[in-house]
């Protein structure tokens, strides 16, 4: 029985512990923060049952993934790249629009975001390119060219509807190239080009966009659902520039932020950030206790984009630090696993996926505490979601698969060392 149980939980035990802690926090906090959904749907259990079902499905796919050998991930790369590109084009032409954001595809009654699949696919492709083009002095000078060639087909379709996801993905790819020892001169030129593009995009947004106040207040968040669980379509789209309004509104709110008294806060205009700040401020460092949040009833995205604010309100600074430490442990533990890998591909893959999860978590936390503009990025493995939860579980499965290979290699090395030592001792005798 114990042997069968251990066969299920293969891979690094620390990663497993971090994953289960995140799942436990997710179940507790999503149940606590889903008051809006329970009110609209008329059921306290329906949102929780849906979340648990998605989480169980994610765990199942994670177990399946961790039992796949790393070499087979390479085979999946061209298939996933093709699927990602086609689905991104599909969502751009005929995807479902929710609150002004056209990000969803409905297939056989199941809705998913192609961008979530594309993120992991780009990490997989980048890891494969970097590993194939490694030399004794780092990555070959042509490695960046191949990576950017793949990015051209994936990132622009994502950027059109989900700028924050595109920015996150670009950050991950850049860090992977740094880890992969791409020549510094090439990285410097890339940084200069990216800065120029950012300035151009910001200029275009501020020029062509319209700050529509609270119209976009709850728009472009994560997997937003209506009371009946279906997405809604907004009218009055303005072609390719329709997302500029949302981006300009967020930039204006962040740049024009000033210290005001609680009485002067306009909750109608700045509802999301205002209630998040109130939730954090009312925690009194020690928290109100799980399930005792007040601001969850006012935050429309308390269960997804602003769940970290609810965690702080209910568990205080200790809970906030504990959650942050889980992601830090995940990153450093994955780094240790990558360091044990004999081959470059599994090492780059594991580090890329860990960076994807941790930096996305950092984005979410910074939004919750008001350090960066609203991005619409969920808190990985904690926020309520559909596609994102399942895909994040698969990422953990891939990291565990790499850890199995790395552990086996270490064991073989130890056996070889012991064998050589025994042979030497026998000869001496």
- Identify low-pLDDT runs: 214-220, 223-239, 260-264, 417-426
Beta content: under 5%
- Rg computed from alpha carbons, rounded to a whole number of angstroms: 23 Å
- Termini separation comes to 44 Å
Number of domains: 1
Major beta sheet, specifics?
Answer: 3 strands, antiparallel
Tally of DSSP β-strands: 5
Describe the structure.
- This protein is mostly helical and 429 residues long.
- The protein has one domain.
- Helix content is 66%, strand content 4%.
- The strands form two sheets. A three-stranded antiparallel β-sheet has the order 1-2-3. Strands 4-5 form a two-stranded antiparallel sheet.
- The longest helix has 42 residues.
Write a concise keyword list for the protein shown above.
429 residues; mainly alpha; three-stranded antiparallel β-sheet; 14 helices; 5 strands; 4% strand
Short synopsis of the structure:
The protein is mainly alpha-helical and 429 residues long. It is built from 14 helices and five strands. It has one domain (2-428).
Furnish the topology, listing elements before pairings:
Layout: H1 2-8, H2 13-33, H3 35-41, H4 46-66, H5 70-94, E1 96-98, E2 101-107, E3 110-112, H6 114-132, E4 134-135, E5 138-139, H7 143-161, H8 163-179, H9 184-208, H10 244-255, H11 271-281, H12 307-340, H13 344-368, H14 387-428
Antiparallel strand pairs: 1-2, 2-3, 4-5
Helix pairs in contact: 2-4, 2-12, 4-14, 5-6, 5-7, 6-7, 6-8, 6-13, 7-8, 8-13, 9-10, 11-12, 12-13, 12-14, 13-14
